[in-house]
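Internal QA ticket QA-208
Title: Verify multi-chain structure generation after dependency bump
Assignee: T.L.

Test input:
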Amino acid sequence: MRVAELAKVITIRVAVDSALAADMLAAAAGRAGVTVGILVDIDVGFHRTGVQTPKESLELARHVADTRGLRLDGIMIYPGHVLGPPQRQGPMLWEVGQRLGEAVAAWRSRGLEPRIISGGSTPTAPMSNLVPHLTEIRPGTYIFNDYNTILSGQCTLANCAARVACTVISSAVPGKVVLDAGSKALGSDRAAIDPDANGYGLLVDYPGARVVRLSEEHGEVDVSRCERAPALGERVYLVPNHICPCINLHDRAWLILPDGAASRVNIDARGCLS
Amino acid sequence: MRVAELAKVITIRVAVDSALAADMLAAAAGRAGVTVGILVDIDVGFHRTGVQTPKESLELARHVADTRGLRLDGIMIYPGHVLGPPQRQGPMLWEVGQRLGEAVAAWRSRGLEPRIISGGSTPTAPMSNLVPHLTEIRPGTYIFNDYNTILSGQCTLANCAARVACTVISSAVPGKVVLDAGSKALGSDRAAIDPDANGYGLLVDYPGARVVRLSEEHGEVDVSRCERAPALGERVYLVPNHICPCINLHDRAWLILPDGAASRVNIDARGCLS
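Actual output:
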């Protein structure tokens, strides 16, 4: 198993929510003669993965602590259900802290110390102080930001570091321009907030424009409410709804350096699915 | 321009809906000493690209015919608005044929013959006979088919040639299993028909399962209505909503040969965006 091979050269930790996953990792660790760090994944409200109760988290922690080849490192949470402006996250993050605190108390009552308590998410990053116990956070989107983080009140366009450069390839249909960027360049993620109104990204410099439909190679922009529309052949810039899967579609990007020079970078981890 | 370079070694045709695009191609063709074939893109109801009236199509055709470096080859249409079961497409395809016929008549009245009349689309492919004048069709999805072509009554699961192989990595949240395939493996395209009910793909062999939410690396499946649910660690197979952007996310695929042997194929054109 690849994880065990990696554990030979670096410290690696895996979040698990089942004894089966822990046992599979332990078997691979045993074959490779390594130790794999384990974080117990606890569901704090997103309801995607994670054990459900303090009792279950304690049982899994004890199982990991008692299994050769594994090292019980702590707890992992992902509060993906907490969106919206930071100043409105207080009540939901209080709940997250409660659920986490119950698990930590259960562990400590049996002498288990979660040395690492890993939190998450770009939306909650600035309010991480509201969740007691955290020792690390894992925001990702914030490196670039995107239309979703603008829409949810976490940043402004000035904080968005990435753009998709597009060209207007058609203006034949009244009220519309068409870009040479579709779902294969932008991704099809809908806007996290009010998707019908917000479309598939923010066209920079054209207030009122809405990216209303994506085909694979076409992005259709409703410009009927724009004071001025981009011209046929014009180069325009788009901030995608969700920068993470967007970046994953591209083999290369251009990094604009502080002096204005452009440097091509390869997106090495793109598509590393298997 | 890359098109002009390609025209040195192969016959290449470009669909255009503006004199500007035609002139840019002509300039590149002139510099490269080649001729580029042109199809005039006519909007037959999808309202994405394409000139709007027979008069506009004639004007653009005459412009192309009069421009050095270009060769007027014919007409391109894309009836992307015609979905649903083939047997119900008659009235809409009749409209498509009407719009196309008016353009052809306008061209012929001025002595211009559209030698190629290129139609389109997987949904309309079996009913192409209902559109007079077509000399070629361009179905794409039909090579594999997908959940969208099942949902719209164009095929059954038995006609779907591609699967995404996934593993159940979590069953900790009641009523749900989580796959190791999210938006970076499947694409985020919603179902073309009744997207809220149909989710993000069809989980093969588990009637009643619904892929209700994708994160980048997770696919959450509601199994609360399944008689039996896939087990933790089980390998399962998913037919994505839209196979075209899905394939575009993968560097490699496995081709299952008639004798059952598997052969790895590289997806060479994936991500050829620039």
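Spot checks passed. The first strand of chain B starts at residue 13 and ends at 16.
Status: verified.
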